[in-house]
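Technical appendix A lists one of the benchmark inputs used to test multi-chain prediction within the project. The record comprises two sequence entries:
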Amino acid sequence: MISYSIDQLLVKGKEAIHQDVIVKGWVRSFRSNRFIALNDGSTINNIQVVVDFENFDEETLDQISVAAAIKVTGVVVESQGKGQDIEIQAKSIKIYGGVNSDDLQGTILQPKRHTLEFLREQAHLRFRTNTFAAIMRVRHALMFAIHQYYNDKGFFYVNTPIVTGSDAEGAGEMFCVTNFDFDNLPKTEDGKVDFSQDFFSKKTNLTVSGQLEAEAAAMGLGKVYTFGPTFRAENSNTSRHLAEFWMIEPEVAFNDLDDNMDLAEDFMKYVIQYALDNCKDDLAFLNDRYEKEQSQKPKDQRSDLGLIERLEYVLNNKFVRLTYTEAIDILKDSKPNKKGKFKYSIDGWGADLQSEHERYLVEKHFKSPVILFDYPAEIKAFYMRLNEDGKTVRAMDVLFPGIGEIIGGSQREERLDVLRKKMEEFNVDQEELWWYLDTRKFGTVPHSGFGLGLERLVLFVTGMTNIRDVIPFPRTPKSAEF
Amino acid sequence: MISYSIDQLLVKGKEAIHQDVIVKGWVRSFRSNRFIALNDGSTINNIQVVVDFENFDEETLDQISVAAAIKVTGVVVESQGKGQDIEIQAKSIKIYGGVNSDDLQGTILQPKRHTLEFLREQAHLRFRTNTFAAIMRVRHALMFAIHQYYNDKGFFYVNTPIVTGSDAEGAGEMFCVTNFDFDNLPKTEDGKVDFSQDFFSKKTNLTVSGQLEAEAAAMGLGKVYTFGPTFRAENSNTSRHLAEFWMIEPEVAFNDLDDNMDLAEDFMKYVIQYALDNCKDDLAFLNDRYEKEQSQKPKDQRSDLGLIERLEYVLNNKFVRLTYTEAIDILKDSKPNKKGKFKYSIDGWGADLQSEHERYLVEKHFKSPVILFDYPAEIKAFYMRLNEDGKTVRAMDVLFPGIGEIIGGSQREERLDVLRKKMEEFNVDQEELWWYLDTRKFGTVPHSGFGLGLERLVLFVTGMTNIRDVIPFPRTPKSAEF
């Protein structure tokens, strides 16, 4: 008697015929008092369990209903139905947990179509639905691929701090972390809140990026990456923003911007290929879902490519690389710009690009992922390396169809004097970042890195459009449920 | 001309002789104006670069000093010295970043012995030291092994939330996360702080454990694990506690406590074996370090085993499994108890075990890792499954030599009525945890899981004794530097 996950058993397929097996899972449907569709989360596919009701007592049969948890002991036989090679002829069934059908009303476990919004309200139960479970398995595969990629390339995973005493990173608004009793805040003599009496003896925040610490690590270990949660206290209630999200940030000593672009492209292709290779059933399901969704859109808003086609397209094409300046020229001369179709029209050099511009370049002009580089210094962060022209920096953004910016990175300013000048210009506190400056004092080297938002990647690979549908328990303004 | 990491080149060894290569790294020493020991972080080993000073200009030679960053172009030759197969005969050297020798004073980069305390003060530079870099590489290998183990076993990595609206988990004191302006706290009519006006419209905290959310995920996906930062706002300034640390929490539907013990043992052995297989040089270095440290201790406090011997010992022995009740009997009759040598003497059944008791069982009595299970219900969490005796729960702790408790876990209470009663007794808010109770309503199943503190594991494998030496930027009371 072998205990199998449903995935294992279906992979074995006809080889398993005549074997006595045990499977455990949740009932997805029970037709004609005879056919159970059983799922255990290991795969999107169910195994059919055939119950000869003559052989089972009524009490057991009564409890076999949608969402119930059962253990089936039986023999694998060739399936008579279509769509499956094998099924299990049940010899005995143990009910782990039944379901009160009244309780089931109003839950997303009821066997009918539910909106994604409704699923979000019951995030604790949506792991039991086909769509969300498929997304979670793909998310897992992508995360594993990320670790495998960097491990294979000789990178070291470094856990940069979540609670940080620094607010100089400048990537966005920060949450405060405190151990104060709010009804009894200690004050300094001049009436200010006295953070020296807080847990860490200073004001502390949740990190917005591990980059600066990762740079310090790369200056000793050579090639490192971070992979952890990051936070933004921004009141953006959109389908693209989360207050808490996961970010991957590789940082490599001795890499210049070209190396950085090579790494980003190679990395993205690796993880997408991994998902295609390892999530076939889930991606086929999500591909169908995507097509249905597209078919309901007005014709001019439909995507040219199916979900899997889009992934393959990214794999098979070299990412177009061009400078910000070249991009501005293209955009200035573009039809939508001339016809006033952009919300933000492109008049000249220097402005930041909006999502509409990025998507025009990727989806209409080049029809390919694009890496833009050498951005105006003024619209990018203080730590990016200044070019010889004195006005652009070695920044890069990777732009993807349907997503826009998916990766942002740069070669870092390794010259101590230039870095100091930039920090002055950008009003970044040099005393607070004494340790960051130190990394430029003791054997400074050219180095580069980038950040990838995990949820943006999962959106792209699964074809979902709302970022709340690709993370288990989304954190957004006014919402920290579960 | 091939660019190699030093690790790659040393692995190639004599095969690389006569090749023209490029290596980049930081100077660890420069002897006789001729021999550079170069390290790039990829390995604990240096490559020797031989400089014929007649062929280089003085300016370049002047800048080759400890901690400087250089690029070497040269040919691989057989080494004349001992301790290495190959070395590089330099043809050209580019200085990336020199070092001002005055600046170097007072830093941990000075080529001499430094205390671990001093290294901690310059945590941003300690990636450049042999000891800390070795620890970081081992930490990386362990983290990768953890992901690989669970992926291979069909588990899905689930990111449970860091910011949580729940404070019912009961694993310890929590930090508060807020977006309030402290000088201007909104108040309700009755003068309390009005958290409904905070970012998430409620009081939110940093998570102490992802277990409850992982249980919800396991009720759909079957086998899951979390791996992320967790937090304790406890004022424990010890060598074993951090305010921010990383935890791994597997959770498996249909697993009972025996399965859970099997999983914990198999998992620990896998990751330790992985480190032994993949971190040979770093562990050899740390083994030497450990031996030196042991030799400086009084004889009766020395460990019987070397570091690597201790790891192999864990691999080669089955973990002893016994109940809390059996452990109490052993401890009551033990020599140290009878002679009053325990700080907390064992008088009878019911008390929680202290570290001294756990270590006595592991290090003196069984001389083996031990899994204790079936603890008194009163000293364990509300969610642990009640045994038939009505007074013990299906809890388990895995105890390791030199560490004490390294894993804590349990079979979870899957019976809704029993769980509710326990929550009442433990004063856990059922309304707040409505969603957790839901998972027992819709097809509840037996399930189990445990938590492993990553830093405890790294301590055990590296032989370090202070937890601040095994995480890049430790967070402790009064300290959130970098």
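The first strand of chain B starts at residue 2 and ends at 3. Chain B has 15 helices and 17 strands. Comparable benchmark entries are summarised in Table A2.
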